[in-house]
Amino acid sequence: MSYSVGQVARFAGVTVRTLHHYDEIGLLVPSERNHAGHRRYGDGDLDRLQQILFYRELGFPLDEVATILDDPDADPQEHLRRLHDVLKERIGKLQEMAAAVEYAMEARRMNIRLTPEEKFEVFGDFDPDDYAAEAAERWGGCDAYKESQRRTASYTKEDWKRLMEGFDAIHRKMADLMAQGVAADSEAAMDVAEEHRRFISGGYYDCSYEMHTGLGEMYVADERFTATYEKIRPGLAVYMRDAMLANAARQV
Predict the structure, then answer these.
(1) How far apart are alpha carbons 38 and 124 in whole angstroms?
(2) pLDDT tens digit sequence for 152-181
(3) Buried b or exposed e, range 121-159, using 16+ CB within 10 angstroms
(4) What is the Cα–Cα distance from 153 to 110, expressed in whole angstroms?
(5) Does the structure show a pLDDT above 50 at 236?
(6) Which of 89, 86, 81, 55 is nearest to 69 (CA)?
(7) CB half-sphere exposure, 160, CA atoms < 13 A
(8) Which of 58, 159, 194, 210 has its CA 20 to 30 A from that of 44?
């Protein structure tokens, strides 16, 4: 099976002029010509063209591509392995660049006045961006999510520090009660759960008891949140969930 120069150009997404040029410089000489002298490309030619285009996409000049492909000691499989390694490295860099651009876009949209260094200084190992897309998917249409976005849009570094310090204090209170063997449905634990709910309402959105118990369930169901609380004290995620549920139940 062989293909005309026009067919190959369509397959590969290049121009006929490009294929003619590759032929003229000896980079891709078609293996056949018909009785009229027109170029005909076989499967081997297409394989070589694919490799040429891979290397060109990665920025290799044509003369260097020719040197690589015409190496008599080169194994075709090794070519593919080399391309795969280079592509993986390039993909990693592009992903890092895309993440940086997304961060810049989001920071500009939300008017966040934090440098990346300041942001990680504030949040430590916990990066809210890890959960931003999921939060938008789960709650993006609800009033609480919109209210949280509106409030936090103008928060400064000091505002975020104040919130994180407040949460840390509440978590320490809950962890201390747990360490003392105080039951999660005790008055003391429920009071701390209520403090937690009110703190969310003050800093982010009006957190109803229904929403608060939903958060508690997520602390246990989502391993990322569970890990955050387990670092404070093993078992704290479940203990907080139970205290939050008990606090909501006593309001009935």
Answers:
(1) 66
(2) 666 776 777 788 888 889 999 999 999 999
(3) ebbeebeeeeeeeeeeeebeeeebbeebbeebeebeeeb
(4) 5
(5) yes
(6) 55
(7) 20
(8) 58
Q: Could you tell me which of 249, 248, 231, 239 has the C-alpha nearest to residue 183? A: 239
SS3 at position 32: strand
Q: Can you give the three-state secondary structure of 136-164, one letter per residue?
A: HHHHCCCHHHHHHHHHHCCCCHHHHHHHH
Which pTM does this prediction carry? 0.47
Kindly report, residue by residue over 50-108, the tens digit of the pLDDT: 888 888 877 778 888 888 888 877 676 777 777 778 778 777 777 766 666 565 565 55
Q: Which residues contact 16 (CB under 8 A, 6 or more apart)?
A: 5, 6, 9
Length of the chain: 252
- Per the model's pLDDT, the better-predicted residue between 224 and 69 turns out to be 69
Cα–Cα distance measured from residue 117 to residue 124, given in angstroms and rounded to the nearest whole number? 10
237, 225 Cβ separation under 8 angstroms: yes
